[in-house]
Amino acid sequence: MEERRFDPRLMVKRLLAPIDPPLFFIQMGLLGFALVMMMSASPERVDSQLVNSGVAILVTWVAARMPTQRLLSLAVPLYLLGVALLVGVALFGEVSKGARRWLHVGVTRIQPSELLKIAMPLMLAWYFQQREGLIRLREFLVAGVLLAVPLGLIAAQPDLGTAVLVAAAGFYVIFFAGLSWKLILPFALVGVAGLGAIVAFGDQWCQPGVDWYGLREYQKHRVCTLLDPTSDPLGKGFHIIQSTIAIGSGGIFGKGWLSGTQTHLAFIPERHTDFIFAVLGEEFGLIGAIVLLCLYLALIVRGFAIAARAPTLATRLLAGAVTMIFFTYAFVNMGMVSGILPVVGVPLPFMSYGGTALVTLSLGIGILMSIQRHRAP
Amino acid sequence: MSEFRTPEQETYQFRARLLVAGMFILVCFGLLVARFVYLQVMRYDYYHTRAEENRIALAPVVPNRGTVIDRNGVVLARNYAAYTLEITPSKVADLEATITALGEIIDIQPKDRRRMKKLLDESKNFESVPIRNRLTDEEVARFVAQRYRFPGVEVQARLFRDYPLGSTGSHILGYLGRINERDQQKIEERGDEANYRGSNFIGKSGVEQSYENELHGITGFEQVEVDAGGRAVRLLNRTAATPGNNLTLTIDSELQRVVEEAFGDRRGALVAIEPATGGILAMVSMPTYDPNLFVDGIASADWKALNESPDHPLINRAIYSAYPPGSTFKPFMALAALETGKRTAWQAIADPGVFNFGGHQFRDDKRGGHGMVDMYKSIVQSCDTYYYMLANDMGIEAIARFMGQLGFGRRTGVDIEGEAEGILPSPEWKKRRFRRPEQQKWYAGETISIGIGQGYNAYTPIQLAQATAAVANDGVMFRPHLVKYVTSSVTGAQREIEPRPIRELAFKPAHLQTIKQAMLGVNREGTGAKAFRGAPYEAAGKTGTAQVFSLKGAEYRASAIHERLRDHALFIAFAPVEKPVIALAVLVENGGFGATSAAPIARLVLDYYLAGKHPAGPAADDPDAGEAE
Fold first, then answer.
1. Minimal CA separation from B88 to chain A, in Å
2. Is 3.90.1310.10 the CATH number for B54-74+165-249?
3. pLDDT by residue (tens digit) across B9-26?
């Protein structure tokens, strides 16, 4: 037996063992890009962005070290905790900006809906794993109910952005679990028809006084503002108008780092959070935007590669869904900032300032790494 | 879904779905790229422009308004800088509460509030409106210390107009006032909006109004980079403002003051013209007002007092009010007679004191008449009968033609606004004036009283002064004007106004001499003799009395009728007779006989102007002076 000695090289090796190099480099690339953008958009937040990045890497590392089975065993408790907290929000939550989203727990306040973004796919993956080989319509119905309960609670807060993301996360698991195309297609068709109808009749629906059954006034407003930003140039429409001006005026090569007039003269609202892509588009132009898209694409390709080789049904579903969540974040955010999707509060993954979303996303990277590392059955 | 699937089948199905998802992702990202290309390549120019428009704002640099001085360099209008406290209503949530809070640190009177309210109604919501003008340094310091409490409230250094002589010459200078909606419309019609961005004031009357274009100057611009909140971040480019040009008036402000004092508290007007140039030496309309009241936006009580006064101080009587010229018309009638050949100077008539025409008696003021009257005597003694006959002989058309060329019944074109045309009676005028055919007809009897300056005759004092100056200047007429020259603020070059005569009436020198001698006779031995006794110069003159109220057959007794219904007193004069340097027309409203109240004013004015004598006080009425006019 060899004597256990302190060996720095072994130490580093063990530290780095859970890390998947491609994912790690992509994540570092995104965080580095975010830091560069933050120096322009909000220099005073660079320090705390550095801290957040450190925390993000740590979270990734911890999650990556954790065996997949352990992760999956947390699915039920996390899901139940999440739902319980959402109920708590509904009963005792704190109202901020017209929505009841926050819950005070001792020293800090948390936004339980954020937890569901990971707990939801985890729960559904765990569930389908339990029913592996027996997945029939009934199982999909149960999955649908599991999805619907927290979704309803979030939508009631109301928090349309998070609801969309949680719904997407759940749907991706169900989709990858093999939900029949016969069931997907009708929904897809209804969706396409709906979009067509909005384009055709949007103006009439957006008249004041027209009540949109089931949607709040502010949600109607967001959709309507998207359809015609000029209808409200000083209010909600201001965000979209100014962010498209920022992106468009960036041109192919951009105005140069720290030289975006829209950014530095405060025409872009929320420029360090949801609208940071407008800063990027203005200062780095089309080139910068495509570089960012490529980083996300690389992340997705790597995620799908891990999913394709994942050993169990649960890890497959989980890896696929998590990857799709990254895509959804990125697409919804860039779509909204460039004016092709409604303004919903969805951050740009790894780029927007804000600890909670960063931790959630880093957890996702960590889960992918964990699946990749523990793929031997 | 099959009943039973092998793990291989499941893996295969999963990978197929990954592929579908991947395709979906590519489509979505493709959509984004298409959108970026659309925004950043295809519509780059548009968005680039929009971003520049966002970023760059033009801030106007208001030019200094030109100053106004009189012919001797006395300052009549100038600018001074003062601090104002201004509120931008759109940036203030509760205006009343804000003003009340401001009142705790700065003295705000109820009249300040009222004035602000008025300005608010007139201005657009995004403009700042002054709540207090002329803050003291202490008040500025107190406000600045507490500025954080008052978003939307700011202290601004602004230029204000100041009229150092106060009410002297107020009708000439006019005044500046805030630009209201109607002014704004006019500015837009002229296409001058850009030049008025940032300007708060505009000339409202007098030369301030008529020379607005000269005085205003050219607004400069600062290109500033602004942030989303509209705050200027840095200066990109600056085009300096070009100050307004300065005006030098033909007015002698000391003479103006002397005239105003001579009037005392009587109402009336006086226009004094330099015959050789048409330059107006004094233009007085009494009562006057203080134009400084308007500078800050006039307080409503002051406005009410001015606007509702029965004396109508805001009206410029010198150019706007038309009066019958009375007997001051006679020298012009006499000249017309000579020029048209209807009379010679020595031709005399026997005056029975009455002229009968068409069954109507036209009476002379002097009972029993003046005896044998030639032209000289007709003017010196102001014989009515002579002119009744003359008017009848000449006919209305000839009178109208002759008087028209002297400028009667036509706007003189003096360089301030608000001039009235007056009435030069003629058959054509009657046709235009009246609707009904029987009223439109000219009756020969109507011509008779025209001859003595009554009837339909109505001329403004400036027309009377202009005609007097024309005679004094041997028929060479200039357009009366107030501005001597405009001095360019940039080059210092002086541009003369109206240096050329507008008309040269070829009167025979002998005819002119007859009239001038007769007018000299008026002041030597006639109706003006008392007023001009002992004058150290030779002045030509003519008294006049214009009826306000027609007495049907009854005897006119000044003391018996209401003051406002008493006759207007007139006097025209020029001096020295040989080479006149001043010609004037005076009108005293309800002053009675011209010799009584108007001639003494003319005497004071000429004494000052020709002999440098400052009067001791208002001209005294002379109740004994020539009863007959």
1. 19
2. yes
3. 888 889 999 999 999 999
